[in-house]
Amino acid sequence: MIDFKIIHKDKNSRARAGELHTSHGIVETPAFVPVGTQATVKSLTSEDLQTIGVQVLFGNTYHLHLRPGEDTVAHFGGLGKFMGWNGVTMTDSGGFQVFSLARYRKFGKQELPNDDGQADLVKITEDGVIFTSHLDGSQHSFTPEQSIAIQKKIGADIILALDQCTTYPITHESAKADMERTHRWAIRSIQAMKHKGTFNQALYGIIQGSIFADLRRESAAFIASHPFDGFAIGGVSVGETKQEMHAAVERSIPFLPENKVRHALGIGDVDDIFEIIERGIDTFDCVTPSRLGRVGHVFAMPPEGNLQNRFRYDITKVQFAQDSMPLSVCCDCYVCKNFTRGYIHHLFRAKELLAYRLATYHNIYFIIQLTRKIRTSLLENRFAALKKQWLG
Amino acid sequence: MIDFKIIHKDKNSRARAGELHTSHGIVETPAFVPVGTQATVKSLTSEDLQTIGVQVLFGNTYHLHLRPGEDTVAHFGGLGKFMGWNGVTMTDSGGFQVFSLARYRKFGKQELPNDDGQADLVKITEDGVIFTSHLDGSQHSFTPEQSIAIQKKIGADIILALDQCTTYPITHESAKADMERTHRWAIRSIQAMKHKGTFNQALYGIIQGSIFADLRRESAAFIASHPFDGFAIGGVSVGETKQEMHAAVERSIPFLPENKVRHALGIGDVDDIFEIIERGIDTFDCVTPSRLGRVGHVFAMPPEGNLQNRFRYDITKVQFAQDSMPLSVCCDCYVCKNFTRGYIHHLFRAKELLAYRLATYHNIYFIIQLTRKIRTSLLENRFAALKKQWLG
């Protein structure tokens, strides 16, 4: 199980610094949770992640269920032991990938449907979702009970209830129906947790409601009224504007108990990190730092990095070929202490495996360090000043 | 410059343990030289290589010339500084890649021509070789003088004279003509070295002669009679049998001065390592450990590894899915201490970047450790026993 302690509250916002106590150690919050989809943060070892200062890792149940399968993960002692990671772990329910992968397969990344047109690849019923594997076309299903059973085998410290991810844009009527199903699934998930598993796990409930203020409030109030160990805000990163994303968090938080931990699913842009922490979020996961790193988009601190360039630049551009500076001038990560922009530029141009590794390492370090700085600023009552320094 | 000291000679063979003193430290020989073709040993950092115990790295002039270009490498202070490697470096002349890449492009890897049918992509004249880049089709040339000039900019501690790599099979007449051209190019390379460069570099001469005993002897005697700092035996890995490869080394060695270092180009199989060291080789480079690692072929020590399975097995096979053992039971490398076969099997099945990194690390560690064991066995007068233990 987990225990969340608030260490310090910000005077001017809902932001707080806390400690999430788990059976695999304490997570100092706010904390960024890197995503290790298939039991690996792409190209990095668990030792790298520890050196970077990562405290908690996020695994994807959809992928782990399909390969290597939850029984294999359980055979090795659960997700952490399987990948050689001694820290804290969390997994999602698998629902998000089912919905998003299915959408992409049918419509391509650029043409998302206006409604749930993915019905022929993903079938949603009151019972759960039936879907075909992107690996071999085999048929699978996630009911709330199955998702919990699979996550019990995967064995992360923190697991998530199955929710129905809504498409975007969406009508109020459809969003309400999806939310209500998410609520019924939440209750079934709590029931399913009563079956004892091998591991000592905490369950988070998920708040949905799309961009609709009344639904977000209703969902937060409903989920908060049930005995979850923590809360996750879902559906804030799919197709909505940043303002809508921040509003979704802002509307949900007041309904959640102070003394329980709050997670934002799929958020990781620098400005969003400040905004959601300010609104009371404790932890957040995102693939952005690693995914951007693998295409050569590397993070840079102010003044090089700013809101206009989204705190990043493309190291593959020819202007960096003979640049002797580190990726980010004030960064003290292993990559910035040992390699030049010119060398990393060359590795990307030559499509060398080390390119992806160095950029991923730097980008994750960057977000971890930023979050650590934010935590320190909270403890020292200067969060607003730090936010202004970064976002202007 | 370099200085080679013999520390101990084996009583029953030509094998010796030595020290190669360079301006970037001492290389304890026999030593394996991993190949970092494009200024990176694929997927590994220089810190990894240091932890593994690598003493000297091999870069490929053909690749570095085309990308990022020798001027860029020079701009960053030479190969070692460019890639963040503080140890010893060596580069080849570029010739081998010109000949082999050209052959592959025209005929495919499975259909090597019987003669130098690559003439339309690589034109060989007395002056040098003219070739087209595999990257963009641009035309380039390597004369002995140009190869030295390029290698002076790349700045490795040890550089190689341009040689004419022969095809295989080949007639005695053609092999003799190629060898004689290699000899004329060797003299021009020594001349070219007299132009002062930025770096303190040693030049190796290359012995050719294909599978013909008289030519190998003639070539060794000729090259040995010129003021090279060390000697490399070339053309022993292209198309010949292992027996012919060992014979080519055996025939050359007696003509080389005892007190100069001897390198075998492109050799790295476990049995060959024993055989060439026994015949008097001090250092050898090979892409095999890293290249095999990236397709999931991992090395194993006796008794798991043996001559029949070539000291390796395919970790991608389904039998390893739930195997909790390390890659090699008695290996004490970082990978074997921290990860199971089952996890690495999963990474390969999922095509995860970490798979290539872990397998490469383990395989290079394996060969480095084997070579270190051989050195210790020489110092302790039990080389023959170690060879028998490994090869039976």
Class of the largest domain in chain A in CATH?
A: Alpha Beta
Q: Runs of chain A with pLDDT <50, length 5+?
A: 105-119
Percentage of residues in DSSP E strands of chain A: 15-25%
CATH topology-level fold name of the largest domain in chain A: TIM Barrel
Overall, the morphology of chain A is globular
| Alpha carbon gap, first and last residue of chain A | 40 Å
What multimeric state do the chains show?
Answer: homodimer
Q: Overall pLDDT of chain A, averaged? A: 93
Radius of gyration of chain A: 20 Å
The major β-sheet of chain A equals: 8 strands, parallel
- Biggest chain contact: A-B, 37 and 37 residues
Short description:
The structure is a homodimer of 392-residue chains. Chain A has 15 helices and 16 strands.
Describe what this molecule looks like in 3D:
2 copies of one chain form a homodimer. By secondary structure, chain A is an alpha/beta fold. Chain A has 2 domains: 3-91 and 151-286, TIM Barrel (Alpha-Beta Barrel), CATH 3.20.20; 296-391, no CATH class. Chain A contains 15 helices and 16 strands. Chain A has helices at 46-52, 61-66, 70-75, 79-83, 95-107, 144-154, 172-193, 213-224, 242-252, 270-278, 288-294, 334-338, 341-349, 353-379, 383-391; strands spanning 3-9, 16-22, 25-29, 31-34, 56-59, 88-91, 122-124, 129-132, 139-142, 158-160, 202-207, 230-233, 261-264, 283-286, 297-299, 312-314. The first copy, chain A, has an 8-stranded parallel β-sheet. A 3-stranded antiparallel β-sheet of chain A has the order 1-2-3. In chain A, a hairpin with a 4-residue loop joins strand 7 (122-124) and strand 8 (129-132). In chain A, helix 6 (144-154) crosses helix 7, helix 8 (213-224) packs parallel to helix 9 and helix 13 crosses helix 14 (353-379). The longest helix of chain A has 27 residues, at 353-379. The model of chain A is unreliable at 105-119 (pLDDT under 50). At the A-B interface, helix 13 and helix 14 of A face helix 13 and helix 14 of B.
